[in-house]
Amino acid sequence: MTTQNETKSFFDLHINGLGYLNRIRQVTPKRGDAFWACDISALNGPADDVSYTRFDCRVSGKEAEKLVKRCQQASDMGKKVLIGFKLGDLWTDIFTYSKGDRAGQTGVSLKARLLFVSWIKIDGDMVHQAPSRDADQRDTTPQQDSTQQPPNYSDPALVSEDQAIQAQQPIPAQGYAAAGAFDSPVN
Q1: Are 67 and 128 spatial neighbours (Cβ–Cβ below 8 Å)?
Q2: What CATH number is given to the structural domain containing 66?
Q3: Is residue 42 part of a domain?
């Protein structure tokens, strides 16, 4: 008897962008485990006439979950939380409005999994920048002490001035290195 190793192939469809993080919440379904969710109002179109596309996202992965949780307090306080993100597994959910001017009308919600957060700005201040995914960059990046917990930037009272200064990352003056690359924030 011969054993064959079957390798499954997948075609990934990812959405990279930047948008405002809203409605951060923990969802407890009737069946299954609780999970974190959020809305992202993604910016698209020309810079002088921006449009927004809303995504209802399930947060996937420990790192993304940790970063979204850190932003919850700032979002609840009405602060502007802008993120660079990667979404996957896009699907639509059709529903019927039950209240308001659109009661009885059919609506469509775009749903996705939030896979990765590349950077976070709260009220214009950079509070998180993921390490570059470039191999060359990894070799020259100084290693951080993994035992030290990162400060909670969602509450300004918990952040010392030194921590805030250390958290500042250089931002490229030219914006994005290439069209469609959302690993660096816009100035």
Answers
A1: yes
A2: 2.40.50
A3: yes
Helices (H), the chain: 62-76, 135-140, 161-167
Query: Which residues does 6 contact at the CB level (< 8 Å), separation at least 6?
Result: none
The range of the structural domain enclosing residue 19 comes to: 14-125
| 55 occurs within a structural domain | yes
pTM exceeds 0.70, yes or no: no
CA distance 143 to 65: 23
Give the pLDDT confidence of 100-120 residue by residue, as tens digits: 999 999 999 999 999 999 999
Are the C-beta atoms of residues 58 and 114 closer than 8 Å to each other?
yes
Give the tens place of pLDDT for each residue, 12-52. 889 999 999 999 999 999 999 999 999 999 999 999 999 99
The count of domains in the chain is: 1
